[in-house]
Structures are given as C-alpha cells and as structure tokens.
Amino acid sequence: MSTRHILLGLLAQGPSHGYDLKRRHDERFPQARPLAYGQVYTTLQRLVRDGLAEVDGTGSDGGPERTAYRSTAEGARELAHWAGEIAPPAPFVTNEIFAKVVVSILSGGDPEAYLRAQRAAHMERMRELTALKTAKGADLATVLSADYALNHLDADLRWMATTAARLTTLTAEVDTA
Amino acid sequence: MSDIGGTAAPLLAARDLAKAHGRTRALDGASADLAAGEILAVTGTSGSGKSTLLHCLAGIVRPDEGTVTYAGERLDELPEKRLSELRRTEFGVVFQFGQLIPELTAVDNVGLPLLLAGAGRAEARQRAGEWLERFGVRGQAELRPGALSGGQAQRVALARALVTGPRIVFADEPTGALDSLASEQVMTALVGTARESGAAVVLITHDAQVAAYADREIRLTDGTVARAGVTA
Ligand SMILES: Nc1ncnc2c1ncn2[C@@H]1O[C@H](COP(=O)(O)OP(=O)(O)OP(=O)(O)O)[C@@H](O)[C@H]1O
Ligand SMILES: [Mg+2]
Question: Smallest Cβ distance to A134: which of B2, B188, B229?
C-alpha cells in the first residue's frame, strides 16, 4: 500500500503535522496496521524532496515545536493520478490457506479436517467484523473497512467450500476406481 | 462466547435425526441444539439436508428416526393438533420457496396469523403495517404477492413470521433473493427483533456474510452435522 499517497490524500484536506497525520490515518483505516511515527516523518521528507509537499510553517502551541506540511499543486496532480489508476489484479494469489491445502493433499494429510477448522476460524472473525460494523454509531470508515475484510474472508470461504466439495468427489472417484 | 447452548437445557434439541425422501437419505443422524434467544446459522452445500432439518425442527415434517424436543415436549411424537397449535403460537416460519397467499395483499398476508390468533381486522392491519415498515416494504402493503419482487416477497414473509412474537423463528434462505446491502438491512431487522424479543432464530443460508450475523454455525454434509473442526 502506498503510504505516500495516503498521506497526500490526508494533506488534501488541509495542512497538518506528522502527529496529526498519523492519528487521522489510524482513524480512517481502522483495520490497517497503525502507522509508525518514524514512517510518517520519513515519508513526509520524501514528499518534500520530490516537490509533492512543502513545509507550511512551524508552531509550538505551548508544546514541542511541530512542523506542518501542505500538499503542492504537483502533489494534488500526483494524488489524482494515483487514485484513478487501476490496481493490477493479483496474477497469482499466494496464500497460506492455499499452500496448506496443497501440501496436505501431496503429503497424504487430512485437508478436509483442516478446511473445517479454518472455516470455523474465518466465521469467528466474520462474526466479530459483523458486530463491529453493525454496532450503534459505527462510523463510515469502520463500516467500509469491515465490509472489505468480510468480502475477502467470504472469498476464502467460497474457495474453501468448493475445494472441500472437490476433495469429496475426488476421494469418491478414487474409492470406486 | 460462541458456546451458547452448552450447559443450560436447550430450548430445542434434535438427536440423531434420520429422514428419507424415497431412496434419498436427506438426514442421516443429524443432531443440533438451540438455546433460548440464540441465533443459529445452518449452512452446507445444496442438497445437504438443511431444509429437511428445519422442517423437522419446526414440527412440519416428522423424522423417520430420532427425537426433537421443544421446551420439554417431544415434537416427533406430538399429535398433529398440538403441533399446528405450536406452529401458530410459538414458531414463525419462512419457507425457502415463498408461501404467501396469492389472493391476499402483502399487509393481509402479514396480518393473517394475528387474525387466526383472534385479533380484530383493524388491529391486525395496523400491526402488520408496522412489520412491513420494519422490513422496508411498507410501500408494497397493498400489492398481491404476484406483484412483488423476489426480495420484497421474502421480506413480507419474514414480517409474517415475526408478527405474532414467536419464541423461535425458522428462516430458510430469507436473503436468497437479496443483494448484499438489502441482505444487511433484512438481517439487521431480523437480528434486532430477535434480540429485543428474546426470540431464537434458526437461519439457513448459503451466504457466509449472512451466517456471520448468527451466534454460531452448524454445517451439514450429506445429512449429518459436520464437527466444527478441531476443537482445542
Ligand atoms: N419432497 C422431496 N421428495 C424427494 N426428495 C426430496 C424431497 N425433499 C428433499 N429431497 C431430497 O433430500 C435431499 C435434501 O434436501 P433439502 O431440501 O433438505 O436440501 P437443502 O440442504 O435444503 O438444499 P438447498 O440448499 O438446495 O435448498 C436432497 O437430495 C433432495 O433432493
Ligand atoms: Mg433448502
């Protein structure tokens, strides 16, 4: 994921300092890993170096001195370009679930038992996410990110259900052969 | 948290159910418990016996073998008269393939169980209207089932299942004809109603995102309940 573009996006709402950007990022992307301060500052410095952001001023509000940044016109153009650019659909999905099932089949393990257990774990997580997004007062960012995660877990589950059904058919074929 | 139904006596308990349709063994040793107020999702591939299980649990179909106990009564042994009384007063059922009465408008379909329970016509219509509102189909109150979309008909059927304040709602694919936002709206209304009234729900669905509204999932494979994986 492009931290620089996300920070540019947050700066599009007005000048901000690093601390504030980190806080707003973590709020907007509640299911994502929180940004580290170090990463925020390095990224801001690179944005300035590349002419996409500039220093807006330095203030201290009684506390430690803090530098505010703002987006440049070039930054706004870059942001618009990135936001409209399609993301390549992943050509190969390498995933631990997939790998485990394949290895389990190759090594004569019990992929069906694994798939059942994995389904239970996925469902548990989906219940948590559903509770999160249907809670009273859930904000839009929470709902959207829960939806996103739910749809991806759902895709895993559909693949897992199809695979379990295929394994049953294959086993039946082998047994009657 | 998901282990509801563990210690206290379940409200509804099915043990080792078997049911054959001709030579097809639709159920083959299925067992399930439902605690009071619990929302239970029943999932499984097409033809795995979900609808048959629901019909046995709701006293609509008698199993060939096994027992179904509801609040101390053996549904599999009850006379038809008592069964239909239970279905009218304690259970609300939404069938997989609609069962709205074609000659009645949506609001009269929903009000019918109230009329059967002795309510007056005006009261039945008013309360039915409130339930239609809750499921987002008040605007279709005066339409007959033939004029409803699939999703609208499903919502009317849910309203009809809930109108008498049942202790258990049995719903067979209630969101089968709905897109994901409409499903969300219907599930929020169904779960909200159940939580408020303390009703338990048995919910058949092939949609994991719908099953995620439930407290627990059981999964059918070839007429039996698959164990929920390796338990710690
Ligand atoms: N009335 C009937 N007559 C003959 N066979 C039946 C009848 N009802 C169900 N079956 C068979 O019993 C099996 C289980 O059917 P059931 O309707 O319970 O499955 P299901 O899990 O609800 O499937 P779906 O997801 O497709 O609704 C199927 O093989 C079906 O063909
Ligand atoms: Mg069915």
Answer: B188
